[in-house]
UniProtKB/TrEMBL annotation:
Functional summary from the UniProt entry: Cell wall formation. Catalyzes the addition of glutamate to the nucleotide precursor UDP-N-acetylmuramoyl-L-alanine (UMA).
Residue positions binding ATP: G108, T109, N110, G111, K112, T113, T114
Catalytic activity: UDP-N-acetyl-alpha-D-muramoyl-L-alanine + D-glutamate + ATP = UDP-N-acetyl-alpha-D-muramoyl-L-alanyl-D-glutamate + ADP + phosphate + H(+)
Location of the Mur ligase C-terminal domain: 307-420
Protein name: UDP-N-acetylmuramoylalanine--D-glutamate ligase
Record keywords, A-Z: ATP-binding, Cell cycle, Cell division, Cell shape, Cell wall biogenesis/degradation, Cytoplasm, Ligase, Nucleotide-binding, Peptidoglycan synthesis
GO terms for MF: ATP binding; tetrahydrofolylpolyglutamate synthase activity; UDP-N-acetylmuramoylalanine-D-glutamate ligase activity
GO cellular component, one term: cytoplasm
EC number of this enzyme: 6.3.2.9
Domain Mur ligase central: start-end pairs: 106-285
One Pfam family from the record: Mur_ligase_C
Coiled coil stretches, renumbered: none
């Protein structure tokens, strides 16, 4: 059995390690340069690899190709493989063949990393034998080499879901569907939504599909009458079919054998979107038998990943929040909605065709200053110039923080929540968020 792997990042190298462990003939090819840490890992395992090219003859001689999620299906080599009848799959599909562990798979346009980390934290805190993998940055396939976990909590992007066929989750979670990455889906929201719904594929009655009943795009694309598993809708808006709801500071779960009322008052997460994320994670915990008190205690000890509504400091009664991961309008809407104090908002970057009109009412109500951080701020300025009392623009995050400090009053929140990609001024959203944190620490907290 010959396996070719396209892409030598975390996903591809993890798949290579598993293929080697299972005695398969494996070859790794990356059109770019491979990071040294991955070269060392492949060399130590005696796995042949190449970089800077694709040796098509060798790749197309494989019985199966494992494709890294960043490589689109329309890539010429992938198309040629399919023409020749060579099966092209994802690392997740491949890993699923070699373990009997139960998979808790989480996807959605927004919130999936927070929900994945929270779910993992709840289960691990309760003593379950659980691993963490997927789009979170850890290879599922490499973890399956040792196969020491009873459960895996797996964050899945739409790109990973696209090349999964026989794989089945025991619990699949779908948080929301909003337009994103549409260039990979022929600019069709329907095709993107269909990709997300693959998280519920192949389910049977003993499997659970946990989904947001308030999301219009899920409602219009999920066909429950064609579904073989057990549905568990959750809702903030009182949806008639909801089995899980958020009431005050409690999550109420009402299913046969899985009932509970969980106090969330100790949770550090803020905003309506995190109420959805919390409902999803709590639902998974209840389905796996955790007690209400166990869940409530673990909610209080959770610390989210960086750059997601992360408080980075308080000075002179002004709170500084890093939400650099908010690279689309919906994520910013949830940030603005969740903060109950006057806001100095830092936004901007590479616009992704944003419609800012959905933010205008919240901005009018809450935003006292908008600082546009980007090379081209014209669209942001045009959208908010009649709404926000004070506007400024800059290409320096240090200046943005310095200006925020000078304009802020006790009780205000300085919020970096860009609504845009970061690539005009930064390497990625992490770089942008780190620079913001450093500026706050240097300019604000040390003064």
């Amino acid at each position: 059995m010959k396996i070719a792997i396209l892409g030598a990042g975390e996903s591809g190298v993890g798949a290579a390690m598993l293929a080697k462990a299972k005695g398969l003939d494996v070859f790794v090819s990356d059109m770019g340069q491979i990071k040294q840490v991955y070269k060392d890992k492949l060399a130590a395992a005696d796995i042949p690899f190449e970089e800077g090219q694709h040796s098509e003859a060798r790749i197309l001689a494989a019985n199966e190709i494992i494709k890294s999620p960043g490589i689109p299906d329309k890539a010429s080599l992938v198309q040629e493989a399919k023409k020749r009848g060579i099966h092209v799959i994802s690392e997740i599909e491949f890993a699923g063949r070699y373990t009997d562990a139960k998979f808790i798979c989480i996807t959605g346009t927004n919130g999936k990393t927070t929900t994945t980390l929270l779910t993992y934290h709840l289960l691990k805190s309760a003593g379950l034998n659980v691993g963490l993998a997927g789009n979170i940055g850890e290879s599922l396939a490499e973890k399956v080499v040792e196969n020491k976990f009873e459960y895996y909590v797996v964050e899945l992007s739409s790109f990973q879901l696209d090349n999964m066929y026989q794989f089945k989750a025991h619990i699949g979670v779908l948080l929301n569907i909003t337009p994103d990455h549409l260039d990979r889906y022929e600019y069709s929201l329907e095709k993107y939504a269909a990709s997300k719904l693959r998280v519920a594929q192949n389910m049977m009655g003993s499997d659970f599909f946990v989904f947001n009943a308030d999301d219009a795009n899920i409602a219009s694309t999920f066909k429950s009458e064609m579904f073989g598993g057990t549905t568990v809708p959750f809702s903030l808006q009182g949806a008639d079919n909801a089995k899980v709801s958020y009431q005050g500071k409690e999550v109420k779960v009402g299913m046969q054998f899985y009932e509970g009322t969980i106090d969330t008052s100790a949770s550090p997460l803020i905003g309506k979107h995190n109420q959805y994320n919390t409902m999803a994670a709590v639902t998974v915990a209840k389905l796996l038998g955790l007690e209400d008190e166990q869940i409530a205690t673990a909610l209080g000890t959770f610390r989210n990943a960086e750059h997601r509504l992360q408080e980075v400091g308080v000075a002179k009664e002004v709170t500084y929040i890093n939400d650099s991961k908010a690279t689309n309008v919906e994520a910013v809407w949830y940030a603005l909605e969740g903060i109950k104090k006057p806001i100095i908002w830092i936004a901007g970057g590479v616009d992704k065709g944003n419609d800012y009109s959905v933010l205008q009412e919240l901005a009018k109500e809450k935003v006292k200053v908008l600082i546009c951080l980007g090379l081209d701020n014209a669209k942001l300025q045009e959208s908010f110039k009649r709404i926000v009392p004070v506007m400024a623009e800059t290409t320096s995050i240090e200046y943005a923080v310095r200006l925020s400090r000078s304009l802020a009053e006790p009780g205000d929140v300085v919020l970096l929540s860009p609504a845009c990609a970061s690539f005009d001024l930064f390497n990625n959203y992490e770089h942008r968020g780190q620079r913001f944190k450093e500026a706050v620490e240097k300019i604000v907290l040390k003064k």
